[in-house]
Amino acid sequence: MRIVIVDDHPVVLVGLKATLHGYDAAFRIVGEARDGMQVMAALAGSPCDLLITDFSMPTAEPSEDGLGMLKRIRATYPNVHIIVLSMVQSGGLLQRMLDLGVRGLVDKHSMTKDLCLAIEAVRSGRIYVADNVRKRLPQQLDASEVVSLSARESEIVRMFSFGLTVSEISRRTGRSVKTVSQQKRDAMRKLGIESDKELFDYARFNGML
């Protein structure tokens, strides 16, 4: 099996290589990358059966990271199976990855235990979602996560995702910086989101941009 591995942390790449080589001598790592641009180059440079990739990595363009990166890969290389390693907490984002054709979801914290199980499942034509990831998935695919936000919280998320800072949002809405910051934190808490990058991806996924 020809595999491309992707992560912005060199230590993770070393760990991936050790895990893969130790598990099956038939695994051949044909490329590695540290961001969305490099992964497209790696896939173009060598035939690949499986892509094992981080979800969120430093990048200049949204299309080269997160959901944007996965969309490009699926459109350009539809026959490449994808396993995502991530610490994403948002059930909506995790479900969107599956909707885009990701075949495996593995939490980075349990990578050593779950990665090889995920690969075996993918090789058998099945989808693998690690137990600690499955718990975060929504029970039903509707707009429940969006409507759980108040109107003001939704407004803050939308404006923040357009690139406005908390101070700029404060000036535009006439609310204090403290109030805007609290509303942003409340929205992230309700959605189970822990980073600004996840919040941006959530807004894109739910049509808030």
Automatic annotation (TrEMBL):
In terms of Gene3D superfamilies, this protein maps to: 3.40.50.2300
Kindly give the Pfam families that the UniProt entry links to this protein.
Answer: GerE, Response_reg
Q: Which residues carry this modification: 4-aspartylphosphate?
A: 54
Q: In this protein, which residues make up the domain named Response regulatory?
A: 2-123
Going by the UniProt record, its keywords in alphabetical order are: DNA-binding, Phosphoprotein
Highest taxon of source: Bacteria
UniProt domain HTH luxR-type: residue ranges: 142-207
InterPro entries referenced in this protein's UniProt entry, alphabetically? CheY-like_superfamily, NreC/VraR/RcsB-like_REC, Sig_transdc_resp-reg_C-effctor, Sig_transdc_resp-reg_receiver, Tscrpt_reg_LuxR_C, WalR-like
According to UniProt, the name of this protein is Two-component system capsular synthesis response regulator RcsB
